[in-house]
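Postdoc handover notes: sequence design on the structure in folder B. Input tokens:
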């Protein structure tokens, strides 16, 4: 089992923030619209798997209080510097205490990651129940997951680079509905490049199953293929789950 110590160390945390923040930024208008349309223009939003705080920063600008949770100390350091007005804590989304809040978000397939031994269907069901209890009546739980077939027709080796970094990602999807990303990163330090390697394993979920588990918890559920004008690629779905008033 991959542990939290294997995930998003300093170099990959920097690269993720610098070169892979477009998903969070593009999701912002659609996410804010969901919150506003649900009648929530203020209050505490808990962001599970908050990463480097891109979404947290936009929430603060929009007038919300934010508690961000992530497993990576290195990525939380970036988040704290970016959004000093928010609170950030290190922890697993599977067992971190959740305060009463108006919304819980988890953006960028965080629920798929197998960084915690509690991951999987039973673990998710417990997370859903804990979120349901923490939400105020009418509160929203907004998140996205990827499903089986995510890598069908996609290149298995992917290379990306920025001004002072580069990544090579070897992706493989398996018949047991898991996916592995073997990430080799290179980050410039002075005149040299430092190499690091991480392996991220994910569990793939059918969107119909996720919707069923949410409804069994008590949520009303809307399945979406993107956040507002931002459209997802194949086998990727979002959920706007609401606790009844």
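Designed sequence:
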């Amino acid at each position: 089992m991959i542990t939290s110590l294997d995930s998003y160390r300093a170099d990959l945390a920097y690269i993720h923030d610098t070169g892979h923040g477009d998903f969070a930024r593009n999701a912002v208008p659609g996410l804010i619209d969901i919150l506003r349309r649900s009648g929530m223009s203020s209050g505490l939003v808990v962001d599970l798997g908050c990463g480097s705080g891109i979404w947290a920063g936009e929430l603060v600008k929009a007038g919300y209080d934010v508690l961000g949770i992530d497993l990576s100390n290195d990525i939380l350091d970036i988040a704290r510097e970016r959004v000093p007005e928010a609170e950030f804590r290190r922890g697993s989304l599977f067992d971190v205490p959740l305060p009463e809040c108006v919304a819980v978000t988890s953006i960028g397939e965080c629920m798929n990651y197998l960084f915690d031994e509690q991951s999987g269907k039973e673990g998710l069901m417990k997370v859903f129940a804990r979120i349901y209890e923490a939400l105020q009546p009418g509160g929203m739980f907004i998140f996205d997951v990827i499903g089986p077939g995510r890598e069908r027709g996609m290149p298995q080796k992917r290379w990306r680079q920025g001004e002072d970094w580069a990544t090579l990602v070897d992706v493989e999807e398996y018949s047991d509905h898991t996916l592995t990303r073997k990430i080799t990163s290179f980050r410039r330090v002075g005149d040299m490049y430092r190499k690091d390697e991480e392996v991220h394993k994910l569990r793939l979920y059918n969107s119909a199953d996720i919707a069923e588990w949410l409804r069994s918890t008590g949520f009303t559920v809307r399945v979406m293929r993107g956040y507002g004008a931002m459209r997802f690629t194949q086998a990727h779905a979002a959920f706007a789950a609401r606790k009844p008033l």
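Context for whoever picks this up: Residues 157-201 form one domain. Don't rerun without checking with the PI first.
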